[in-house]
Amino acid sequence: MIVSNGPTRPTYPLAIVHPLGTLFRHLPLSLRRHLLFLRAFGRWGNFRSPRTFREKAQWRTINDRRVRLSFAQDKLAAKEYLRRVAEAVGEPMRIPETYWVGTNIEQLRELSDRLPARWVLKPNHSAGRYALIDSEAHAIDWEVLGALGREWVKHDEEERVMGHWAYGHARPAMLAEERIGGAHQPPEIKVLCFDGHAHSLMVQEGIGTADWRVAYYDTEFNRVQSGWSLE
Question: Under a CB-based contact definition with an 8 Å cutoff, are residues 173 and 122 in contact?
Answer without folding.
Answer: no
